[in-house]
Structures are given as structure tokens and as C-alpha cells.
């Protein structure tokens, strides 16, 4: 039903790159091909090679370089009057904006990308852009608004037999079910995503699906050893492909597993590691979640109650301003867990 996964963001002279190519290798080849295109004066090729460079920088956590690269790609695409290439550049910029926590900008750029993709006749960039809008809403906890869009995009991806996009949609829907307590449904969806990703040789999608399964196995079944084994398997792909963001979230989830198992010192070490990784790539959502896990671990290890209260209050305000509803609810539960809710509102 599904063919081998491909990476539509690797275009022009870079179409031979695999979805599983190391991001360091993608960046090196992308820069080389970009320079060749610039020397030849082919703006369309500059735009498409620049897109791969932007995406490699973004996924490696180099946000300043990624921001510069997607904008240069857009300018080249506009100069070439290539509507589809303009859409892809805006998709990259919108995805970067979401990664940096700039959600209004992300929605604006991704909306423009979807419109241009439709005008340019590129159904793939249109689908990726709508998916980006759906993911932005999901991350903010607006499940009612984006749940139907996730399902629509899943149906479209299944019809086209596009494995990578099917896996993405399944994982997004699964995460919403997990966050609302429907663990069995979430597990089934993550499991299907893992199977499709494995069959399509989509190692990135497979790593994220394994992380989701580990989360369910830990929170629903209390099976920390199996959860840790799944995360270790996912980590191998993250390291081999230089997936900095996925690796940081993997480490944060490992901290969650340790915390749920009452292994607070080990949890603290993993949250500290994840926090360092998220800060290095300017990923505010991941940073906030790692801070929350660290605060809870330190509280369990005897940290002063007033310090815990102050940390959670600060996190609550940060997440409220960012519009991250689900994460804000997690902080509220932590405040109740440690009996510091009263201090949080004074």
C-alpha cells in the first residue's frame, strides 16, 4: 500500500538524497550544490538547494542559519517566479517559527505556503503546510480546532500512499489521544505509525513513533524497562541521522520514564541533559517541558518547597504567554502534586 518514504524538501540537484540521510551530509551537499547554482545564475535551483540547506540547519538546531537560509530560498524563488518553490520556502520558515515558539508567525507563514502551494499546483507542499498548521494547533493544545484537519490530512496521505505523511498524521492524532487519556487508542495509532515507517524505511518517523509507544508503555503499563528499550532503539536513529531535536525529546521522555518509576536522581540527570540540548537549539517548548520535569525531580529529591513554588509559577506564566495550553495544564497538575498551587496565584 505504501511505497518507500521520500523527502520532498530535497529538490533540484538534491533529489537523490534519502529521507534517512544524515543531516550533516545533507547540509554539506546542499551548500555545495547551492554554490554551484549561484555561480550558474539559476535562481530556481538556488531556491530548491537553499530549501534543503534551511531544513538541515533547522533540524540541527541552528536556528539563525536556518532563518537566513529559508529567506534566501524564498527570494530566489520569487526572482524565478516559481510559485511552488516560494511555497516550500514559506513552509520551512513557518516550521522554524513554530520550533522557536513564534506561533502567530508560524500560522501566517504556513497559511501563505498552503495558498501558494495550491496556486502553484503542488499538492505535496500544500499538504505539508496544512499539516504544519494542524501541528501548530495541536502543540498549543487546541485539539477541537485541529483534530478534524489531522483526520483529513491522514485520509489524503493514505489515498496517495504517502508513507511519511501518513506516519506524521497518525502520530499527531495519537498524541492528542494520549494527552486526553485515551491510552489504548493512542498506542494503536503509534503502533501503526511505527509499522508503516519501518516498512517505508522512514527512520525519523519510526523514531518518533517509538518515543510515543515508550510514553504509553510507561504511563499506562508502568513498564519502565520496555519503555527505556524502545527509547534506546529510537536514539540510535536520532544519532545516526543527527536529529538534534528528536534526540532532545527522546532524552526528555527518558526522564519522564525514570520519574514515573520513582528513579528521581536518574530523571534529574536526563532532564538536565535535555534542557541543555533544547537551549542549544533555541527550542522554548522543549526547554519549558524539561524545566518542568527537572523541577519535579528536584522537589522529589528534597528541594526547598518555596523554590519549587517559584519555579512552577515562572513556568506557568511563561506557558500562559506562549499559548501552550496542554503544557500549562501539566504545570497546574505539578503545582497540585506538590501542594504549591496557593503560592502560584499570590
Can you put this structure into words, describing what you see?
- By secondary structure, this protein is mostly helical.
- Helices cover about 80% and strands about 0% of the residues.
- Among the domains are: about 5-140, Serine Threonine Protein Phosphatase 5, Tetratricopeptide repeat (Alpha Horseshoe), CATH 1.25.40; about 260-345.
- The protein has helices at about 25-40, 45-60, 65-80, 85-100, 105-120, 125-140, 145-160, 165-180, 185-200, 205-220, 225-240, 245-260, 265-280, 285-300, 305-320, 325-335, 340-345.
- Helix 6 packs parallel to helix 8 (about 165-180), helix 13 (about 265-280) runs antiparallel to helix 14 and helix 14 runs parallel beside helix 16 (about 325-335).
- The termini are far apart.
- The model is unreliable at about 340-345 (pLDDT under 50).
Q: What is the CATH first-level class name of the domain at 7-140?
A: Mainly Alpha
CA-atom Rg in angstroms? 20 Å
**Net shape:** globular
What sequence of helices (H) and strands (E) makes up the elements? Answer: HHHHHHHHHHHHHHHHH
Helix content: over 70%
CATH superfamily of the domain at 7-140: Tetratricopeptide repeat domain
In DSSP terms (H or I, runs of 4 or more residues), the helix count works out at 17
Q: How much of the polypeptide forms β-strand, as a percent range?
A: under 5%
Low-confidence stretches: 342-346
| Main beta-sheet annotation | none
Could you give the distance between the termini? 57 Å
Architecture per CATH nomenclature, i.e. the level-2 architecture of the domain at 7-140: Alpha Horseshoe
Content-based structural category:
mainly alpha
Mean pLDDT: 94
Give the strand tally. 0
Amino acid at each position: 500500500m505504501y511505497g518507500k518514504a521520500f523527502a520532498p524538501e530535497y529538490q533540484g540537484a538534491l533529489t537523490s538524497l534519502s529521507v534517512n540521510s544524515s543531516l550533516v551530509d545533507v547540509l554539506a551537499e546542499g551548500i555545495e550544490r547551492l554554490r554551484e547554482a549561484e555561480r550558474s545564475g539559476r535562481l530556481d535551483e538556488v531556491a530548491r538547494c537553499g530549501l534543503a540547506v534551511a531544513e538541515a540547519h533547522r533540524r540541527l538546531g541552528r536556528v539563525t542559519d536556518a532563518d537566513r537560509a529559508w529567506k534566501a530560498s524564498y527570494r530566489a524563488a520569487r526572482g524565478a517566479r516559481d510559485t511552488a518553490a516560494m511555497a516550500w520556502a514559506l513552509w520551512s520558515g513557518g516550521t522554524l517559527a513554530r520550533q522557536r515558539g513564534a506561533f502567530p508567525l508560524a500560522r501566517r507563514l504556513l497559511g501563505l505556503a498552503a495558498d501558494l502551494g495550491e496556486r502553484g499546483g503542488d499538492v505535496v507542499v500544500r499538504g505539508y503546510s496544512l499539516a504544519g498548521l494542524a501541528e501548530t494547533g495541536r502543540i498549543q493544545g487546541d485539539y477541537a480546532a485541529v483534530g478534524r484537519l489531522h483526520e483529513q490530512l491522514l485520509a489524503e496521505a493514505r489515498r496517495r500512499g504517502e508513507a511519511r505523511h501518513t506516519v506524521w498524521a497518525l502520530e499527531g492524532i495519537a498524541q492528542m489521544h494520549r494527552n486526553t487519556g485515551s491510552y489504548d487508542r493512542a498506542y494503536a495509532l503509534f503502533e501503526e505509525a511505527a509499522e508503516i515507517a519501518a516498512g517505508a524505511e522512514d527512520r525519523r518517523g519510526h523514531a518518533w513513533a517509538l518515543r510515543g509507544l515508550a510514553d504509553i508503555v510507561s504511563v499506562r503499563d508502568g513498564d519502565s524497562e520496555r519503555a527505556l528499550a524502545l527509547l534506546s532503539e529510537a536514539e540510535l536513529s536520532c544519532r545516526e541521522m543527527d536529529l538534534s531535536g528528536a534526540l532532545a525529546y527522546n532524552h526528555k521522555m527518558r526522564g519522564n520514564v525514570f520519574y514515573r518509576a520513582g528513579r528521581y536522581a536518574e530523571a534529574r540527570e536526563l532532564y538536565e541533559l535535555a534542557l541543555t540540548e533544547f537551549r542549544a537549539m533555541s527550542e522554548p517548548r522543549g526547554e519549558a517541558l524539561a524545566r518542568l520535569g527537572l523541577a519535579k525531580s528536584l522537589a522529589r529529591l528534597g528541594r526547598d518547597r518555596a523554590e519549587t513554588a517559584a519555579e512552577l509559577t515562572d513556568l506557568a506564566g511563561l506557558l500562559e504567554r506562549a499559548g501552550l495550553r496542554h503544557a500549562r495544564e501539566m504545570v497546574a497538575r505539578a503545582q497540585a502534586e506538590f501542594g504549591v498551587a496557593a503560592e502560584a496565584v499570590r
